[in-house]
Design goal:
Distance between the termini: 120 Å
Radius of gyration: 39 Å
Largest sheet: 5 strands, mixed
């Protein structure tokens, strides 16, 4: 048995030795900056020692290799070994999608800064050629028996370092990424990296810490440091604290443009068999050239803003908005001087016999018979002749006296309802409405009731704002954390050319520019509160002027502040997932503005707070659906709802709240409208004219949206609401003038200021510096430099101007009817 084993060993051992001797290892020393060609197969391995000259070793090395053929299943294996590490690749290799095969690559070998120190160390002394700074060896082997030609070249990167405030131009293709180094200058804490290109080829730019090896493959580039997809523009601000030894800028071209455009158009599959069979002269490099994208870059490192520039921009912003507070204090002080009081204080009729500005509020006879006057007011308040028949809630009023005879009360109620219906049917006008309305007919409810209804808007808005804003703030903070941890600059759609970071915020200026909403909203609330406190101290006569609705006006001021909070939250990390946060309370403000205008002349029939916010909830739900990509079905449904809503509201407004969506209401409205073509005169001409114009505009928006189906559904809704609010304000002003009412001088000032700020604000809103509708790379194409104080861009100006425009517009609503404070409600028209 032992002899048999010995015989087997003697027979097999020579065979193993012979097979081992089939692989020849050859070591060759090669110079830099020359192209070298070798034939490689499974029987030979090469070790190429690249030893630079003195001037060549002072730079990193750019290694280019190319094979004439081979298969990805049996590739050439290449290992570049330096004293500080090693890198391994294979040729040929498949693209990320697996559709293409590449036969060449280019890699950057780090500057070997530790080679000389290693030689000087007695424990690591080395007299070999690789001890020279910048030297490396390339080990090449193949598992394929067929010979493959390998071409290579090592070149020192003399343009390795990026200059400061100077353009650096270079070209990149799929097989040849580029890497460059920037080291912070003395005393330099922040710089801004700006990238520009003149073509739309998709590329990825990675900013990595100055450590070896450089990540130039697509997988490595997406795992290290910061990264962004780039087409024509890109920028990022970098801090020494995060890159203490400087940073690498690595640029590589993507296989397709899908990552930058979002388009998934398929390309034809390569016909390798056809090409190989009938075009033998075509080599691998030609085949590669048909599929290789090439992109030109222009990279610039510029200075970032200093702390002094940050301070100046913030202080100037605060000063601009504090001017509004100073102007308000000046007007308050002016009311203390007798010569200024007639200009800034409205005339008013107080509830007692005191006269204000020469207007008498009562006579001695009325004062002597205060009991009779009180009884008359009680009878007026308890009257059932109010036309607010659609309001059957007594939650805001004292309960009426309960009759001891329940059956008699029921019979009385039934007879009253029958009599009211008979009067409406016998009346020549629809719903029994009078031909000419005045505020007194629509202000029969108690003042306390109207105040409670108005205040409910404020409490409801505050409740909704808290429950809406807290999750929003939490979500965007999470987005910011994800951005900081992942390093993906494609997560947030900033204007990177004007994104100035501070603290933990990547885009501080777009967050800070929302300060105007907070300051002006707070100032407006202070103004309304001051008016309310003065009204409480010196109550006015209930038969004069427009009924107060300060709760709704305060809700407008609080709404402005909530808009600022939500807009600031959105700009922490703006993207498609949270765009509705930026717009939600703008919708609320526009709707509340229209309700406020309507309530001024229709206090008794105004819509309740819960109904208003219920409609807004439905609107926000539709906006969310539209953002998720509703398509044709969504737009058809939205168009139908839009038209149906405007028609129902038109009937409700025209018939002064008496129209109800039931058989009787539809029959009465149809009968009235049928009489118009036969020579009948509209009951309320001006009201009908407004509603016709509003219907034309809204039908245009509805049809245009259905036809074009814009991707920016949030903007579409905002334009609809803005347009309706502006139309209502213009109509209200025109009707005041037609009815002989003259707004006070400061109303004109507020209206003029509102127009002067809304026009540029909407221009800057449409101008835009980003686009959440597109991909991150496409959005960067719209980025532009800061325009004001080298700190704010066009969208910041939208924040400033829209805050001012809202403030001026709501001040116009607050003071529209100051001139009517001494006019009896029976003489104030309803429109």
């Amino acid at each position: 048995m032992g002899a048999l084993r010995t015989l087997v060993v003697l027979l097999v051992l020579p065979m193993l030795v012979a097979s081992a001797q089939l692989v020849i290892v050859e070591r060759i020393r090669l110079p830099f900056e020359k192209e070298h060609s070798f034939s490689v197969n499974s029987s030979i391995e090469y070790i190429f020692d690249f030893v630079p000259k003195d001037d060549e070793g002072a730079w990193p090395t750019r290694l280019w290799v190319r094979s004439s053929g081979g298969e990805p299943a049996q590739p050439l294996l290449l290992t570049a070994r330096q004293r500080s590490g090693a890198l391994t690749w294979q040729l040929p290799y498949l693209s990320a999608s697996g559709r293409y095969t590449f036969y060449e690559l280019t890699r950057t070998l780090c500057y070997d800064a530790y080679a000389v120190n290693a030689v000087d160390s007695p424990d690591c002394a080395d007299d070999s050629a690789l001890a020279v700074r910048g030297a490396f060896s390339l080990h090449v082997s193949s598992a394929c028996r067929s010979s493959v030609r390998l071409d290579m070249r090592a070149t020192p990167l003399r343009d390795w370092r990026l200059p400061f405030q100077s353009d650096h131009r270079f070209a990149v293709d799929q097989t040849s990424p580029r890497a460059y180094l920037y080291e912070f200058l003395e005393g330099q804490d922040h710089v801004r990296l700006v990238i520009a290109s003149d073509d739309d080829t998709c590329a990825t730019v990675s900013v990595q810490n100055n450590s070896c090896p450089v990540g130039e493959s697509p997988t490595e580039a997406t795992r290290r440091g910061l990264r962004m997809s780039v087409m024509r523009s890109g920028a990022v601000q970098l801090a020494r604290s995060k890159f203490p030894r400087g940073f690498f800028v690595v640029a590589l071209v993507e296989e397709t443009n899908e990552a930058c455009t979002g388009e998934t158009g398929s390309e034809p599959e390569p016909q390798w068999l056809w090409e190989t069979t009938f075009t033998e002269a075509e080599d691998a490099s030609t085949r590669l050239g048909l599929r290789s994208h090439r992109k030109n870059f222009n990279v610039t490192v510029t200075a970032a803003l200093t702390r002094a520039q940050y301070t100046v921009a913030c202080v100037v912003t605060l000063a601009v908005f504090l001017v509004f507070y100073v102007a308000f204090l000046a007007l308050v002080l002016a009311q203390r001087f007798s010569f200024c009081k007639p200009l800034v204080a409205p005339k008013a009729v107080l509830a007692d016999t005191t006269s204000v500005n020469g207007v008498e509020t009562g006579t001695d006879a009325e004062a002597a018979t205060g009991t009779d006057s009180l009884e008359r007011r009680r009878r007026r308040r308890d009257s059932n002749t109010t036309i607010d028949s659609c309001d059957d809630s007594n939650s805001d009023e004292e309960p009426p006296a309960v009759s001891t005879d329940a059956s008699a009360a029921g019979r009385s109620a039934d007879s009253d309802g029958d009599r009211e219906q008979q009067m409406a049917e016998a009346s020549p006008t629809p719903f029994g409405l009078p031909a000419k309305l005045n505020v007194a007919a629509l202000a029969r409810r108690r003042t306390r009731t109207l105040i409670a209804r108005s205040d409910r808007y404020l409490s409801t808005l505050c409740t909704v704002a808290v429950f809406y804003a807290l999750p929003v703030v939490q979500l965007v903070i999470t987005f910011q954390i994800i951005l900081n941890v992942s390093g993906s600059l494609d997560l947030c759609y900033y204007n990177f050319l004007c994104a100035n970071p501070a603290g933990g915020l990547s885009d501080f200026n777009h967050v800070f520019s929302n300060l105007g909403y907070l300051l002006l909203g707070m100032l407006f609330v202070i103004q309304v509160r001051r008016r309310r406190s003065r009204r409480r101290r010196r109550p006015r006569h209930e038969e004069y002027g427009i009924p107060e609705h300060y709760g709704m006006l305060e809700s407008l001021g609080v709404g402005i502040m909530v808009v600022g909070v939500l807009s600031a939250s959105y700009h922490v990390c703006p993207n498609r997932l949270n765009i509705q946060f930026d717009m939600a309370f703008m919708y609320v403000l526009m709707v509340l503005g229209m309700v406020t205008i309507y309530q001024s002349r229709h206090p008794d029939i105004n819509v309740r707070a819960h109904a208003t916010f219920g409609v807004l909830a439905v609107l926000i739900a539709l906006v969310t659906w539209g953002l998720l990509g509703g398509g044709a079905i969504f737009w058809a449904l939205f168009t139908v709802l839009h038209i149906f809503t405007i028609l129902v509201l038109s009937l409700h407004i025209y018939y002064v709240g008496q129209f109800t969506f039931n058989k009787r209401g539809l029959t009465e409205a149809t009968r009235s409208l049928r009489e118009l073509p036969s020579g009948g005169r509209p009951l309320y001409v001006a009201r009908l004219a407004l509603l016709l114009i509003a219907n034309v505009v809204n039908w245009y928006f509805a049809v245009n949206g259905m036809v074009t189906m814009p991707t920016n559904f949030t903007g579409h809704v905002l334009y609809v609401l803005l347009c309706n609010t502006f139309m209502y304000m213009v109509f209200y002003l025109i009707m005041k003038l037609l009815n002989g009412e003259r707004p006070r001088w400061y109303v004109w000032l507020f209206l003029g200021s509102a127009v002067a700020t809304w026009i540029p604000a909407l221009y800057f809103f449409r101008y835009g510096s980003t686009s959440w509708k597109a991909t991150a790379a496409s959005s960067r194409n719209r980025n532009h430099e800061c325009k004001v104080l080298s700190f704010y861009d066009a969208h910041d100006l939208w924040h400033f101007l829209s805050a001012m425009a809202l403030y001026f517009s709501f001040n116009a609503l607050l003071t529209f009817d100051d001139g009517l404070s001494a006019i009896k409600r029976t003489d104030i028209a309803v429109f």
